[in-house]
Amino acid sequence: MDIILVPGFWLDASSWDDVTPPLVAAGHRVHPLTLPGLESVDASRAGIGLQTHIDAVVAKIDEISTGDEIGEPVVLVGHSGGGTIIHGALDARPDAVVRAIYVDSFPTGEGMSINDGLPTNGEEIPLPAWDVFDQPDLVDLDDELRAQFIARAIPEPRGVAFDKLRLTDERRYAVPATVIACEFSGEQARAWIAGEEPFLAELGRLHDVEYVDLPTGHWPQFSRPAELGARILEAVERG
């Protein structure tokens, strides 16, 4: 199976390095992405928006589908803001995706943005100070991991966080989904859906959703990478 891994804000493809070994060992082909504007601290982020990142994922899906394994379906994995990005790509290519995996994230609905409240610096969003985040985000992210995160962080293009998502193909609802719940539980997510929380309306429309708990903070690829890799592998092999 081809697995496309989309990082969350401030991160590049290398953020998946400690997650992918069990996937590779099981014989799957992994494709961790560095999205436009995240190539380096010095890269230009001007003019890069949410659709730019969605298009980059769609291009990778198309590249895989025209390779040696013609028509081979892919699994999309998105962490945090990457969940919105893979959902946009799923909407564009619903027939090419066998499962979407949302790592401590949810599919975003039509007309919503990922997070238009983050502090910006011109065309980019630097990694904020830790006190901007809620305490559940930071569970298990000790001083050493925080220092490593700061050292590797790349400013996020402003448009990716602020642009509104556009969706057009309701076939996306039929693609099986896995939510790997870290700073919340699957039980909490179900309760939020039952309570008609607007931010989970899109998730509530999916036909086939499973919830897998991995209790930790918002960055399990750093705090519990081996366990995250195992959870992704289990979901892939169910797909």
UniProtKB/TrEMBL annotation:
Keywords: Hydrolase. This is Alpha/beta hydrolase. It comes from Lacisediminihabitans changchengi. GO terms for molecular function: hydrolase activity. Residues 3-228 form the AB hydrolase-1 domain. InterPro entries: AB_hydrolase_1, AB_hydrolase_fold, Sec-Metab_Biosynth_Hydrolase. It holds the Pfam family Abhydrolase_6.
